[in-house]
Request: fold
Amino acid sequence: MATKLKGKQKAAVLLIAMGPEASSAVLKQLREPEIEQLTLEILSMDQVSDDVSREVLTEGHQMALASRFLSSGGFGYAQEMLGRALGNEKAAEIISRLAANLQPHHFDFLKDTDPAQLATFIQEEHPQAIALILAHLPAATASRVLAHLPAELQADVAMRIATMERTLPEVIEGVEQVLRQRLARVVFSETSQAGGLDSLVKILGNVDRSTERSVLEYLDQHNADLAGEVRKLMFAFDNLIQLDDQALQRILRDVDARDLPLALRGAPEELRERIFKNVSARAAEMLREDMAVAGQVRRRQVEEAQQRIVTIARRLEEAGEIVIQRGGDDVLV
Reply:
């Protein structure tokens, strides 16, 4: 019967009984983790009897009724009105359950934090403070956080949890306030450092050439100055022409022999000639022959080959083997 079901199971039964349209409206009001949990519960229920559905619907209606009375007139009013409707015993049971749910849960703002991240976040706190935090988190979450703490800290924190006595509310609130402030600073710092021109250039450096071209064309239309700045900072296939002979030769040594003729099909004539100049006469002749006899290829294949060569250039730059000039301030030496 419904009395044996847990809270999430009752919620799942309630959603099933309400039907798809009403249930979807409810789910829109929930957070993603809650939606995932309820979805799993619904999937695990093969069949729900009419008696269980009726009992859960009745309980849900009673709880909604009690919440409405509480919000409109307080506990006294809710007790009186529910007593008239359901009897004093049933009213007292529902009011008691609602009161427990309405009480604020300490450290509730941490419950959805990834356990590994939370462990990193709190491990510099005093062990007694860590013990206090873990003691107020759900057991499953607290256990995972404890597992991610440094080994030398785990036993100390565990012992403090076991020997912890009643803690004054103001102490708990003080620890909560400090954590909230620290968390807010961390989030602000991470947010303030995200985005911007450098961020866009790094993103474009890892996309395919088609996406790169599409983004740059959009910037050209909506903010030509910004597009120019992005081009100064990033390195694309056509930028190979800006490299000196030594850097270009170093890149070509790592290029797959099948990629080069394919990539050159979409290259400016000036860049083609630079590359022919920086390979042996025999290699240049073979490149020209391959390009002449090859049939039609998809643009995507050309762009993918070009992107693989650009990736080589960027890798060599990161390794310090070549220098890529960006903007007007860099000087090749």
Residues 187-194, 327-333 have pLDDT under 50 and may be disordered. The CA atoms of residues 114 and 179 lie 15 Å apart. Residues 2-102 form one domain. DSSP finds 18 helices and no strands in the chain.
